[in-house]
Batch of 3 targets.
Target 1
Amino acid sequence: MTAAVFFSMREYVVSPIFVHTVPWEQYERRRRELGIGSSSYEAESTISGPQFSSMRSHKVLDTSVSGAVTGGLLRGLRSGPRAGVSGAITVGVATTLLQMGYNEFGVQRLKYLSHHRSSEDGPPPIPFSQSRSSLVSTEEPLMEEPTSWKAKALSLLGVRKVSEEEYLQRLKLQRDHHLKRIKELEQKLEEEQKLEEERKAKD
């Protein structure tokens, strides 16, 4: 239930509000992708593309606010207004860290793909500003090329290329692990709240 409320809050309430109101670069870019951006920014972003800094901050603010609102709302309804504050802080911090970790994982994967392509194929390195979609589109041709000495060496060390299906599966497992962790934190908060209420009742 917590996950459903969180994702609904972020995707249907918080993110749309931020996309239409916040003047930051990532929201300008998202407005352009939705067809509501200015032509001047569209021309500029077409040249530069998304930077790693914007990729690392992608939806961090949305996630932080949504997590805080969700945690505060659910904890407040269950245990009262005072518990809502601690719930907002805990869930907000947890979801923010998870989103930052997810973004960093994507950045490091793009760096690896870019470096791997430039070292094997010999053309100029792919700019760091190139979008994720264009980098992913180059992965299938790479899989069909003859195995280089570097790829063989990496395979001996147990390192191998990860297909898109495997990558998505790992992301799903990571998401499930994070959701499980959030549930454990909520249970811990509930137990602490019960202990506090019992102490007050004894006093």
Target 2
Amino acid sequence: MAEMDTSRKGSIHSRGLPLKKHIDATLGSGNLREAVRLPIGEDLNEWLAVNTVDFFNQVNFLYGTLMEFCTSSTCPIMSAGPKYEYRWADGMKVKKPVQVSAPKYVEYLMDWVESQLDDEAIFPQKIGAPFPQNFREVIRTIFKRLFRVYSHMYHSHFQMILKLKEEAHLSTCFKHFVLFTWEFHLIDRAELAPLNELIEPIVFRYF
């Protein structure tokens, strides 16, 4: 099985650099609620694009620390506890959802997200170039799939996360992710069910 490339990293194109600096500044202040809000006068699609790259990089890094513990033997099915199983389909190469191991699912997922980020027809790099009509739909699909990686990490690898002393970093990244998805309604409530116990206190506190 091909190993996932942990060195992969989505990049912020030049038109998004001012917004990236805003994200870093507001996150540095510790105010996550403020960090997810659309800055006054900024384009929503541009804000979604820059943050999508950031969240992709965060999830890719977090999962990368667990790769040696998440194998086809330990995690033969991509799941979030006993009630939720995720099957892979990208609508192009794999049209019918298929059951795959967790590491294979994440590998497919990261490859797919990276292909979306690299496609200038979806994430235009030239200043002034328009975003496609289906941009929000693509963003929602990306966030839904990134959430599934969080769900798997929490349900299947949390003890190892504690052992590696990564729980604080994971918690901060997940909280930021939840607040952003909630602010812009990017994931259906039913999809969030596997981690409802974690999500509800976050939403209650900040919203």
Target 3
Amino acid sequence: MDPSHRKIELQSLRDLTFLTTSLRTHTAQKLDTHLPPSPDPSASYPLRTRTSELLDTFLDEVLKGMRANTSINGIALTSDAGGEGGADAHANARVEEEIEYEDLDYKLQERLRVLFAKRERLVKSIAVHRRGTAKAAAERFREGWEKEGQEWEEARGEMERRVVEEARRSGEGLDVQMKRLEEVEGSWERVVTGLAELQRGLPETRARLERAGEVVGYLGG
């Protein structure tokens, strides 16, 4: 190789494997396109066989020249003397791709299963709150309001009756006007307190769901 030319820089041996595999795959596809294999596997196809041999020889020469002009992380694939370098210790021209699989972590798998189950429970809990909590709170408020209104009307009627009786006894005409300001304020405060307690519960449930989602996302990433 001319010293003035820069070598092709690759990051890992897998990059070289990818290039080699891509060249051979593309060559095989072209061969199948122009010289399709015989439907009968036992039949002889001399032209295709000879062409395949010539292509393999040509590819071996191309890959050999490519390795001579390629380095992986600064390490040459071949030595200056033309021998095989440290990054390409295999004698054959073909580089077989090796796929490594990490052992299955059963503890992590179980933890993910528990987290997903917890997430589903939280989602269902929030859905139940959205469907039923507001309706139940409104129903309780309506019932309480009607009950207090009925009790107030009964008390007001009883008081008016007593005032009328006292007025009749004393012979004086009284114009009595009853106000319910204190009772209305008390009912309003109870309603506001109940809704505030309901509102405090929903963010907590939502926060727990978001934390569980973040953990699942982190573990799944």
